[in-house]
Design goal:
about 350 residues; 9-stranded mixed sheet; 13 helices; alpha/beta; two-stranded antiparallel ribbon
Length: about 350
């Protein structure tokens, strides 16, 4: 039996999928299988995958069911003790699986191990900035502030964790065991992590290394921001069905942090008026966000309004300088924490 099952949903990633698969085949830890789940991809992504001759790679095909549905199919066919997810346009550092397997084996109380992530552009070049989440003592409040796991390519889970939150669903005509909720085409990750924290004793814990390379799409539409907001509201509605008092207590905070997250996305998309409006909504919905995370909140507020007020060339030069300073500080922090962990 393979120790790790790596599940890669594939849909419209022809430009990236070869590098994604190669980043798994190049792992220093070799006891894994790769499950490519063809979610009715409209391009040649699967044909690219078929060119790999490695016997550890299997291709599963299904009608289009979205990311949650593709992951569910992969989990049902997986044979590994651990389950890892990798999106079809992201990459892993060679030591990622080895680090997570070691983490899970030395930490029997941890059910979900995740890594930090480094941002890369569409060409795969580093943007020299990182996701820098809280790594330990993660609570449901932390999930309401924004998933520390950060993206769908960072987590490695024990199979036992997924079995503990499994449920039966018949949306495709016959009963199936599901793990991710397929009614969500967005926010399926955070909805799953919330169920793990609220319904099981398993802990979520992170590693300081940036072992995931998370590709940033330079395109996108500001309209998608509000679809993301709607999806978060749907997550709250579902969570309210089994934890109503908790949602009542945490909803204002959760909405404020979601508005701030979307404001940062709007800044990246250069949607100035949306960014400014979302930040104002964040602060007025839950003003303690300024006290809880003053630096991040105030910098986002200032950036949103400078984007709105300043000429684009001036804003762009300020943004480049700020990004360089931020990236250097993040890298220094990662190196410091890695050194402390090694002692």
């Amino acid at each position: 039996m393979e120790k790790v099952s790596v599940i890669i949903p594939v849909y419209g990633v022809e430009k990236f999928i070869a590098a994604t698969v190669q980043s798994v085949l190049g792992q220093t830890y070799e006891n894994f299988e790769i499950l490519i789940v063809d979610d009715a991809s409209p391009d040649n992504s699967v044909a690219v995958c078929e060119q790999f001759g490695d016997q550890r790679l299997r291709i599963l095909r299904q009608a289009n069911r979205g990311l949650a549905g593709a992951r569910n199919t992969g989990i049902r066919h997986a044979t590994g003790e651990y389950i890892a997810f990798l999106d079809g346009d992201d990459l892993w550092q060679p030591e990622k699986l080895a680090a997570h397997v070691a983490h899970l084996e030395r930490s029997p109380e941890v059910g979900v191990s995740f890594s930090r992530s480094e941002f890369i552009d569409e060409a795969g070049a580093s943007l020299h900035t990182y996701l820098m989440p809280k790594l330990q003592n993660i609570t449901v409040e932390d999930l309401f502030r924004g998933s520390p796991i950060g993206n769908g390519s960072a987590a490695v889970l024990r199979r036992e964790v997924l079995e503990a939150i499994a449920f039966e669903d018949s949306r495709h005509g016959s009963p199936e065991v599901c793990y991710f909720d397929e009614q969500f085409r967005r926010s399926e990750d955070i909805e799953c992590w919330l169920r793990i924290v609220l319904q099981t004793p398993w802990k979520i814990e992170g590693l300081p290394e940036a072992l995931t390379l998370y590709r940033v799409n330079a395109g996108g539409l500001s309209a998608s921001l509000f679809k993301q907001l709607e999806s978060w509201e749907q997550v709250l509605a579902k969570t309210r069905t089994y934890a109503p008092e908790l949602v009542q207590r945490l909803e204002p905070m959760g909405m404020a942090y979601q508005y701030r997250y979307l404001a940062r996305s709007a800044i990246r998309l250069k949607a100035a008026s949306d960014a400014a409006r979302l930040m104002r909504r964040s602060v007025t919905t839950y003003w303690p966000i300024v006290r809880e995370e003053p630096k991040r909140t105030l910098l986002t507020f200032v950036a949103a309004h400078l984007l709105w007020l300043l000429p684009q060339p001036l804003y762009a030069s300020l943004e480049r300088a700020a990004t360089q300073i931020t990236g250097k500080g993040q890298k220094d922090q990662i190196l410091k924490e890695q050194a402390e962990q090694a002692v």
